[in-house]
Every structure is written in C-alpha cells, then in structure tokens.
Amino acid sequence: MVITFTAILLGLAALVYPLRRNRFFLLSSAMIIGSAYFIETHYFRTSIFSAKTMLLFVVFQLIFINFSTFIAYWVDKRAAVRGDWRVPERDLHMLEFLGGWLGAYAAQRVFRHKTAKKSYQMTYKLMIVMEFAAVYLILKFLHLL
Questions:
Q1: How confident is the model at residue 9 (pLDDT cuts 50, 70, 90)?
Q2: Of 14-23, 47-56, 120-129, which has the strongest mean pLDDT?
Q3: Which one, of 90, 93, 20, 30, lies nearest residue 61 by Cα?
C-alpha cells in the first residue's frame, strides 16, 4: 500500500509541474504515505492495486488534501496580516482542484480570507467544476458510470 501511494503521488508530482513546488501538496502527500505506512504495519496489508487500496487512497487523499488546503489558507491569511510573502494563488487553486475545495470553503469562512476578491472566487468555482468534470471523465473511462 505504501509503495502504491508513493508511486501515485510521485507520478502526479512528476506529471504536473506546479505540484513539485507546492509545499502543501507535499505535506498532504507525506501525511497520506505516513497513514498508509501506519495502516499497513498495524492493521492489514493489501495487494498493490486492489480495489481496497484504491479506495483507501481516495479516502486519505480527500481527508489530507482538505486539511492541507485549510492550513494553506491559514498560512496565507497570517502572511497577509503580517505583510510577509504569501502563498501563491496558483498553489491554492491547485489544492482546490485536487479535492481540497471543501477545506478551502471552510477556511474562507473561518478566516474571512479570499471572500471579497471576485476574480479569485470565479477561479475557485471554476476549479470545483473542473474537478467534478475530471472525476466524471475518469469514472466514464473506467466504465463505472
């Protein structure tokens, strides 16, 4: 399971250039791989690309990408208040597209951050639509729909 998750996440980072520099994606990836290691050493092992392994990957991905997105918004809000270097909007949108839009929504409400900027909100909504379209196409390709 650890090998599978690592291969998927490193492959994704290799294919999508902006992910290589997105430290919050790397944080999320580390948490996913760490969770897989914990599950594999303490509870059960699964075969490399079984349905159970893929389901666990999707669950871990959704949990940790939303957590990382929430943390990214918090870091960006703190930097905005202090006048420090900010988290690039490209990184925030990439996290939203990878499934962190719910964490982004929660962070926007909790921290009151990025809610008034219309261009950001339009791109945020576009990322949600693009994610659902990508999931639909993947499910269609796998003949699950």
A1: confident
A2: 120-129
A3: 30
Torsion of CA 95, 121, 75, 6, to 10 degrees: 0
Give the pLDDT confidence score for residue 36 in this predicted structure: 86
115's CB contacts (< 8 A; 6+ apart) are 108, 109, 121
Radius of gyration of the chain (CA): 16
What's the residue count for the chain?
A: 145
| Helix boundaries (H) for 16-145 | 17-21, 23-42, 51-82, 89-95, 101-111, 118-141
Domain boundaries of the chain, sorted by first residue: 2-141
% of residues, the chain, pLDDT over 70: 100
Q: Do 28 and 66 touch, CB atoms closer than 8 A?
A: no
In this prediction, residue 43 carries a pLDDT of: 79
- Which residues lie below 8 Å from residue 140, measured CB to CB, with a gap of 6+? none
Residues 28, 31: Cα–Cα separation, whole Å:
5
Token pair, residue 80, equals 């905005």
